[in-house]
């Protein structure tokens, strides 16, 4: 199957001479949820704007569902729905009118059945005759998605879909996006909420200073780069780690009450369980007692922070 997006050696220098993107290669498969992560100013918006035909590339090629974004602009653009962060000022339009109008902007003939399907899938059908101004924040966000889906795009870009919304609404949005994927739509989202990427994405791309520094299946990423920590609470504080325990990656907290053992999630299978058993045996032999223990696995956020820090 044709990939949803194919980006080849893409670079962008703004008129100021600033190089916002550098030799980007990226393939986004049809039907996946792809999260693009990156710190402020990394180049996410520039990349998306080029793919959507809003900003001209300096170098390189982009294909959307097989269509070149420059030589086949219209075909490429028609495949894409873009959900911006903010509602524009159509406060006094009805839901039905504003969504139908969006379809017209792409030169598509009216199709009330399609608009009805979109509104029903986003539970907006009962609100179709409401003016936007009367809708809740969650409903307004759904209207943005409905507008972006009005011309039947195969690919949906969500720019910070849950920026500044409360936890409940965020979970509701995640549900909406998952349902969209079930209908075969490819979803590309940018987010600052790493929890969001962790929750939803099939694959994750990290962009930093205009370069793609990593593209990986989410589960594989968390297995490969994730770390586990075992913390042992010591009732009697230790002054220092005894040399007999030097073979393990151990740290002692300042107050001497917590001994922290760090190991890779990728090794956390039989071997490392053996490692923990050995460690506990050696602690006993060294006369070190603990009253409590707990484990913690690094989140995508920890992985992201350490990736970006490595490149500072
Ligand atoms: N029109 C422009 N002219 C000059 N520089 C620009 C222009 N637009 C963006 N930039 C610069 O390009 C870099 C990338 O910006 P971009 O908006 O793509 O980042 P981003 O990853 O989307 O950031 P954020 O998360 O803050 O939205 C930034 O340093 C920005 O200042």
UniProtKB/TrEMBL annotation:
<dbReference type="InterPro" id="IPR050763">
    <property type="entry name" value="ABC_transporter_ATP-binding"/>
</dbReference>
<protein>
    <submittedName>
        <fullName>ABC-2 type transport system ATP-binding protein</fullName>
    </submittedName>
</protein>
<dbReference type="InterPro" id="IPR027417">
    <property type="entry name" value="P-loop_NTPase"/>
</dbReference>
<keyword id="KW-0547">Nucleotide-binding</keyword>
<dbReference type="GO" id="GO:0016887">
    <property type="term" value="F:ATP hydrolysis activity"/>
</dbReference>
<dbReference type="Pfam" id="PF00005">
    <property type="entry name" value="ABC_tran"/>
</dbReference>
<dbReference type="GO" id="GO:0005524">
    <property type="term" value="F:ATP binding"/>
</dbReference>
<keyword id="KW-0067">ATP-binding</keyword>
<dbReference type="InterPro" id="IPR017871">
    <property type="entry name" value="ABC_transporter-like_CS"/>
</dbReference>
<dbReference type="InterPro" id="IPR003439">
    <property type="entry name" value="ABC_transporter-like_ATP-bd"/>
</dbReference>
<feature type="domain" description="ABC transporter">
    <location>
        <begin position="5"/>
        <end position="234"/>
    </location>
</feature>
<dbReference type="InterPro" id="IPR003593">
    <property type="entry name" value="AAA+_ATPase"/>
</dbReference>
<keyword id="KW-0813">Transport</keyword>
């Amino acid at each position: 199957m044709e990939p949803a997006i194919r980006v080849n050696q893409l670079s962008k220098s703004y008129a100021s001479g600033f190089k916002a993107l550098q030799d980007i290669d990226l393939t986004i498969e049809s039907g996946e949820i792809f999260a693009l992560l990156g710190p402020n100013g990394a180049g996410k918006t520039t990349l998306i704007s080029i793919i959507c035909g809003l900003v001209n590339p300096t170098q390189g090629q982009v294909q959307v569902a097989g269509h070149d974004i420059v030589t086949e602009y219209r075909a490429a653009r028609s495949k894409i729905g873009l959900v911006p962060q903010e509602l524009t000022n159509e406060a006094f339009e009805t839901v039905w009118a504003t969504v139908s109008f969006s379809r017209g902007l792409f030169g598509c003939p009216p199709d009330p059945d399609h608009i009805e399907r979109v509104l029903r899938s986003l539970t907006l059908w009962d609100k179709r005759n409401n003016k936007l101004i009367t809708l809740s924040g969650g409903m307004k966000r759904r209207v943005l998605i409905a507008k972006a889906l009005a011309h039947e795009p195969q690919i949906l870009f969500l720019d910070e879909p849950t920026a500044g919304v409360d936890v409940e609404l965020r979970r509701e949005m995640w549900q909406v996006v998952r349902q969209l994927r079930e209908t075969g739509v490819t979803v590309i989202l940018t987010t600052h909420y790493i929890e969001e990427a962790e929750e939803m994405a099939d694959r994750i791309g990290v962009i930093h200073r205009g370069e793609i520094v990593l593209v990986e299946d989410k589960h594989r990423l968390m297995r490969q780069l994730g770390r586990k920590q075992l913390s042992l609470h010591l009732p009697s504080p230790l002054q220092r780690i005894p040399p007999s325990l030097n073979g393990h990656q151990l740290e002692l907290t300042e107050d001497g009450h917590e001994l922290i053992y760090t190991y890779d999630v990728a090794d956390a299978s039989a071997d490392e369980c053996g490692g923990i058993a050995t460690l506990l045996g050696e602690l006993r032999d060294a006369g070190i007692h603990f009253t409590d223990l707990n484990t913690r696995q690094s989140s995508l956020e920890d992985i992201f922070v350490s990736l970006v820090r490595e490149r500072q």
